[in-house]
Design brief:
Blueprint (H helix, E strand, L loop, with lengths): L6 H10 L2 H11 L2 H4 L14 H8 L12 H17 L25 H6 L2 H8 L36 H10 L1 H8 L11
């Protein structure tokens, strides 16, 4: 019997394993396989958890002595992760002339059923940009100018990335933290008719 494992999945399992399991995996597959799995500021894809970001930046893991609200803790963790994803040499700076583009993960809430019931044009609209304003997307609506998920350089700048690819990774890889951050005073339940 032959079992094949994708290297990226093996590295993710290794990154999330406890020390004893890591030792076992190293003896089974060799240490070299897991060298790329160590968090580093040179490859943003090695930052898979908040703890990885802290390790790559050489910072301690945040301990909350003041019992802060969960959305504030999530924001603090996202800011740390964002700095790690920027890498060793990138320092974002606001650009008053507007010549530099930064990317921010965007989120919209749609149920699986709602997306399945959309025609192709409606689905395409979820991914397209409005001609006059850019791609307006907010938390739970297609436009939310005064929420933390507004697509604007004036909001969430510390959570921006220098490439669209990194912003997408940031949103997808850390979706649970984003949800915790964005759901402030938001509850899941039946919608009004």
């Amino acid at each position: 019997m032959k079992v094949e494992i994708e290297e990226s999945k093996l590295q993710t399992a290794y990154a999330n394993a406890c020390d004893g399991v890591k030792d076992f995996m190293e003896s089974l597959f060799g240490k070299k396989v897991f060298e790329a799995a160590k968090p580093t500021l040179d490859d943003y894809k090695t930052i898979r958890t908040y703890e990885d970001a802290c390790k790559a930046l050489g910072e301690p893991i945040f301990e909350d002595p003041n019992n802060l609200p969960n959305h504030i803790i999530a924001l603090m963790k996202l800011e740390t992760i964002s700095r790690a994803l920027w890498g060793r040499n990138f320092q974002p700076k606001p650009d008053g002339e507007g010549s530099k583009v930064y990317w921010y993960p965007w989120f919209a809430l749609w149920t699986k059923k709602e997306v399945e019931d959309m025609n192709p044009e409606q689905r395409g609209a979820l991914l397209s940009a409005h001609a006059d304003y850019g791609a307006d997307a907010g938390f739970g609506s297609l436009f939310a100018a005064y929420r933390s998920s507004a697509a604007s350089a004036t909001v969430g700048f510390r959570l921006c990335q220098e490439t669209e690819e990194k912003a997408k990774y940031f949103g997808q890889q850390f979706i649970e933290l984003w949800a915790e951050y964005l759901k402030f005073n938001f509850t899941v339940g039946n919608r009004l008719k």
